[in-house]
Amino acid sequence: MKNLPLGIRKWRIFFTYLTLCIPLFTLLLSVAPQIQNLTVTGRITDNTGMPLAGVHVKSVYTKKGVVTDFDGAYQIGVSPVDSLVFTAIGYKSQTKAVNNQEIINVALIEDITELGTVMINAGYYNVSERERTGNISRITSKDIETQPVTNPLAAMQGQMSGVNITQTTGVPGAGYDIEIRGKNFINGTTNPLFIVDGIPYSGQSLESAYLSANINQGNVSPLNFINPQDIESIEVLKDADATAIYGSRGANGVVLITTKRGKIGKTKFDIGFNTSFGKVTRFRALMNTEQYLEVRKEAVINDNFESYYNNPSLDYFWPDLKIWDQTRYTDWQQVLLGKTSTRNNLQFAVSGGSEQTQFNISGSHLKETTVFPGDANYNKTTVYSALNHGSIDGKFNLNFTTSLSLEDNDLPYADFTLLANTLEPNAPSLFTDKGELNWENSTWKNPLAALDRQYNMKSNTILSSALVSYEVLENLEVKTSLGYSKYDLTSYATYPSSSLDPNLGYGAEYSTTSTNQSSRDSWIIEPQINWSQELGNLKLSVLLGATYQQQKEKQFVIRGSDFPNNNLILTLSAANNLLIVTDTNSEYNYAAYFGRFNLNFKSKYILNVTGRRDGSSRFGPGKQFGNFGALGGAWIFSEEGMLKNSSWLSFGKLRGSYGTTGSDNIGDYKYLGTYDITGNYYDDTLVIEPSGVYNPNFGWEVNKKLEVGLELGMFDNRLNVQLAHYQNRSSNQLIGIPLAATTGFSSLTGNFNATVENKGLEFDINSLNIKTSSFQWKSSLNLTIPKNRLVAFPDLESSTFANKYIVGEPLTMIRLYHAFGVDPSTGIYQFEDYNADGKITSTDDKQWIEDSAPDFYGGFSNAISYKNFTLDFLCQFKKQKGYNSLAIDALAGFKRNGPVELYQRWLEQGDNSLVQKATMGGMPALSIAGQSQSQSNAAFTDASFIRLRNVLLNYKLPTSVIKGVDLNLFLQGQNLVTITNYMGADPEQTSNSKLPPLRQITLGAQLNF
Amino acid sequence: MKTKNNINNAIVQLVFNCIKKRYWGICLMGLILFSCESILDIDPPKDTLITETVFEDVSTVESALANIYYNMREGGMVSGVNGIAVNLGAYSDELNYHGYNTGQLNFYNHNILASESILLDWWNQAYNLIYAANDIIYGLDHSDILTEEDQNFYKAQALFLRGYLHSLLSGVFGATPYIKTIDYVQNNRKERSPEAEVYEMAIEDLETSLELFENSSLSLGNIYPTKSASRALLARLYLYTGSWEMAVKTSSLLIDDFELESDLSKVFLKESVETIWQLKSGKIKNTYEGISFIINTIPTRGYALSSDLLNAFESNDLRAVNWIGSITSDDGLTTLYFANKYKETFTNSTTELEYSIIFRLSEQYLIRAEALAQLNNLEQANQDLNTIRNRAGLMSVDLNSKADLMEAIFKERRIELFTEHAQRWFDLKRFGKASDLLSDIKQGWRDTDVLLPIPESEIELNPNLKPQNPGY
């Protein structure tokens, strides 16, 4: 305590006193007499008379409660003048006065909209949907279970307003990009904070791009470890009110994942099985052999290469024109991406429990193949268990969950998509007549040789969490959550010489293997005190807590080369050369205090104050702490006299919040001036290289969030409308500032005094259109209209961002040339010369501004059930612009296939064509113009789409067929239909080298008994 | 202090009372809240060194310098892989490229764009290593622990490297920024200095370096820069900048100190006596130059010598025998000739025989010959030229006009120094003959091609680098 600055000391003292004062205060307030001289019993049923287990029965006066047993029965000791409150999820709560009755039976009415009783997980506390002051979106197991996906983020796509999720590639096991309410930080990531059962879980991949850049960009989602079927709910915290309690880590939003718990009742078995078949959504339209060769030959003439062309000793230079079969045609997309992938998923769960103890154990296994040639496949096994226990007096509660997940991913070394899109259409056949790989006298690289190169990734994840709570006094609860997670990833990528043309004479001495061994370990302890008190119409609750977290990461990448033979390629000890590529260890420690203060007057006026003081080891001395906080309020105006008995308005709430969150999302040790130890030597001297500039002055980023929201429930809450307007401003940006090479570094992490604003509108509409005893139709629509803007950027003009950003424009802006099309007289692309200097240069003439972020996006879903059939479907839509096929290639005539648009090239004077005249690189002016065309507004056009993301048809076998057994059979489709004007393959994945998302059809069965 | 004690006593009292009342949970909570921030103190990372500690020990300073030597060998302009020797060889009239690599083809076809990634690599690596050199200079200047002799010896190497890399940058890109500090704010906006000024600043660095070397008794052999390396580069830059007398004086010192290897087949072995500075090979036991230039199969994806260069050899030139290799296709129709100064590729030998030579003595003879010719000392100029010719088995010449002599030196340099660090390309520019000689053999030639473009992305990052070189 000696050396701490005064500020911290003050805080300690403040917290210590606060912590000790609360119980004393509580003692004063809880001295009211507790008379219990009546035992009330009863039975709770639903409106059809079926007994309801697990209903909470609570005394209004003493706050003590019990839970109903299997037969819906309860027994509670109360005072004769007390009242009892009956609550159960999915039902409307009821309050009954005791009035000396000894038997109180209640039939609860199903709450079709669940508004009042649904409790939302807000992280450190729960809040009812009705009384929440913050903006929290939510999907539950009902929405997730019906989607056969491997990653929880996939299940969220299109379901929530303000949440934009895109799959990075269609290769199994790869990552997702997630953006909650836009990009807040220049150069920073948009990754939110993921919390699984109370434990922060890093969504950062541990794979090294050194191994898997070509197949999944080094991006393996750690969130794969959760089996989506084990998830009870996913909540996304968006505004300041909801996220400020996460302080520094809440700037990009918080995603809370809660797993399923066992429920009181008889032991339940769930068995599920499903199989999917997948295909690439859309292929590109490419040139055929005739078109391709025609364009190529023209290029030879245009470039004046005829004399070379007619010289037979140079034939090797254009094998496609001079050596290969001129009539042969192969649809390489069909050959390399045309397979049907399969996915088999088997799942088993047992759950149940008594009033005191409930359990849930599940296991699953998944196997998924790819659309690539070869037998690549992805396997995942998960085991999950949850145990809840409460003491008989209800004071002690324990929640314990553990999940274990094993992934084994065998993939090709490289994604075949680029080859499929660029291989010459008359390239030779893959195999010789003898069935061996055909190298056509070394005139091409056989793509299937790449199958000899392997990539394998294995990961083990264990995540354990415990929540222990004890009710010290009846309104004072002490709890601690504890968590541990470990993520181990090992992978290898081989590059054997046998995958190269044997005629080139490369032996195993050229073979290489790289391996990656990485792990992340983290533990967390969060002690908390929860205190609540009612003072007449005023309900007060206070939460105080602290967090201690430590995370250690290791990554060890090593490359072996020069093997005695290719059979030993997986044995690094056999390699003659070993190179250590990466050997890093890092540590991240984090400490914080947090609190919440909630005032609720008459369940009408609610005030919520949250705050956090964060300390992070990522900052230099004196800069480690930051304070964050938020104020939120809600007014449930439908409770006001005038509206209380409105015939159409059943619920109305106005809420708002303002506060700050921050970010330390910069990587460890960035403030130190350092030298990295490389594994290289010069003359037996170890090589060390400068890796960081000393910069102790950087500190927390600040993100200010403002939100107002309106929530309406109409017609008995059958129609719910939520509107939210948000405005987030991020400043003191912590970014990797790009530096010119003359500084010796490509970037430097530091605070930048720029302000970025994200504002937008979010609409969520849920409606129960029709409900009869046999027919039900629900619809929901979410829509987000985001707007991102760089508000201020001092000295932008003289900074390294001068050519990247403009004040007033979004961060996602891109600068393009303004294309004037092809000059009909010269056949060359023309561009606007903005500064009229007669030259087209990137610094001066890329003045056409476009925005790569969507204008709006959302989802529209419907759930229709008729008797035993249900039909669900979800359409996702996005209005956006994206790079089209001209961005991939605007040059016709090179030795590579390209989009069929290239065939529409300029031929002779007067032609008004899309593409300039053919060239194969002999004319610099044409090459330069072609490259500029790829970076012009002509290459960036509409990529909006409406996609039928998910369709599900489910049939539930009547219970009477097999007694006591529920059997559901379903047929499900993903990405079945896409409506788009996009010029290219898939509007969601505009890259030429990455596999787009797949279209999948799934058949499955679910058995419960 | 007193208040603090009182507070502490009060807390102890309260804690004690709490335990008595079995509110243990609250106490535990309070204690945990209380123990707090020391968790934020973390150990320094295991895999990195804090900059100050690097300059507290000679071995880590050597490691920091090793970074520069290692990277020069493995990539960038000086390297035998994709460096100036290969690409500017194909860009000028030395090499024909037979492969498909787009970047390398662009050099060969004179189809260079400002976005060319090879150029960006050269630029980035050179400035990266210049920063490394500057950081070493700064660290040594601020080190209280190293001896003065050590400080001077390592600083001499760093200054030499700074001068060398800048001189190459200027040769390729023309006017370039000259970086002397580690201040990133300043360096981030650095403007270009005209070519002549770059050479002047490089000469200044090298003169300082030479002085430091001369005052030091330490030496690590010719796989590190020495006073001779500083002199060799100084002589070259004096020549480039027209300081003929200084060029004669400096090269003479080297000619006195070293001797020519009489057997041409031994000139490129690592023990060669005429080597002034070379880079020791690493995991690959011999040189990247050997791998890049030697052709093992037909068809090849490598570089063959141009017929233009082959025809420039006089008959009976022993260098054609010793330094040129050939391969004929199985059908006997095609024969390709390749640079074979280095004999080893990394497959045919597992022992170290050759290192990458950067400066060798015969260039000094040619430098002196040229400087003497400029000073109209034709007799001695002829003599120096003949030293090189005679070693190659050629007859002496006796040219008595300055113009003829200059032409002969220009030609001799082409033959003696072919495929060595783009000497030919720099000569073509220096003698003002690039347009004359290349416009006929390079279809894509434009007169503005004498300068390569500043990488476009760098101009975007630092607008002070504007204007771009003409033609891009």
Automatic annotation (TrEMBL), chain A:
<comment type="similarity">
    <text>Belongs to the TonB-dependent receptor family.</text>
</comment>
<dbReference type="InterPro" id="IPR036942">
    <property type="entry name" value="Beta-barrel_TonB_sf"/>
</dbReference>
<dbReference type="Pfam" id="PF13715">
    <property type="entry name" value="CarbopepD_reg_2"/>
</dbReference>
<protein>
    <submittedName>
        <fullName>SusC/RagA family TonB-linked outer membrane protein</fullName>
    </submittedName>
</protein>
<dbReference type="Pfam" id="PF07715">
    <property type="entry name" value="Plug"/>
</dbReference>
<dbReference type="InterPro" id="IPR039426">
    <property type="entry name" value="TonB-dep_rcpt-like"/>
</dbReference>
<dbReference type="GO" id="GO:0009279">
    <property type="term" value="C:cell outer membrane"/>
</dbReference>
<keyword id="KW-0813">Transport</keyword>
<keyword id="KW-1134">Transmembrane beta strand</keyword>
<keyword id="KW-0998">Cell outer membrane</keyword>
<keyword id="KW-0812">Transmembrane</keyword>
<dbReference type="InterPro" id="IPR012910">
    <property type="entry name" value="Plug_dom"/>
</dbReference>
<dbReference type="InterPro" id="IPR023997">
    <property type="entry name" value="TonB-dep_OMP_SusC/RagA_CS"/>
</dbReference>
<dbReference type="InterPro" id="IPR008969">
    <property type="entry name" value="CarboxyPept-like_regulatory"/>
</dbReference>
<dbReference type="InterPro" id="IPR023996">
    <property type="entry name" value="TonB-dep_OMP_SusC/RagA"/>
</dbReference>
<keyword id="KW-0472">Membrane</keyword>
<feature type="domain" description="TonB-dependent receptor plug">
    <location>
        <begin position="130"/>
        <end position="254"/>
    </location>
</feature>
<dbReference type="InterPro" id="IPR037066">
    <property type="entry name" value="Plug_dom_sf"/>
</dbReference>
From TrEMBL, chain B:
<keyword id="KW-0472">Membrane</keyword>
<dbReference type="Pfam" id="PF07980">
    <property type="entry name" value="SusD_RagB"/>
</dbReference>
<dbReference type="Pfam" id="PF14322">
    <property type="entry name" value="SusD-like_3"/>
</dbReference>
<dbReference type="GO" id="GO:0009279">
    <property type="term" value="C:cell outer membrane"/>
</dbReference>
<protein>
    <submittedName>
        <fullName>RagB/SusD family nutrient uptake outer membrane protein</fullName>
    </submittedName>
</protein>
<feature type="domain" description="RagB/SusD">
    <location>
        <begin position="335"/>
        <end position="472"/>
    </location>
</feature>
<dbReference type="InterPro" id="IPR011990">
    <property type="entry name" value="TPR-like_helical_dom_sf"/>
</dbReference>
<comment type="similarity">
    <text>Belongs to the SusD family.</text>
</comment>
<feature type="domain" description="SusD-like N-terminal">
    <location>
        <begin position="41"/>
        <end position="239"/>
    </location>
</feature>
<dbReference type="InterPro" id="IPR012944">
    <property type="entry name" value="SusD_RagB_dom"/>
</dbReference>
<keyword id="KW-0732">Signal</keyword>
<keyword id="KW-0998">Cell outer membrane</keyword>
<dbReference type="InterPro" id="IPR033985">
    <property type="entry name" value="SusD-like_N"/>
</dbReference>
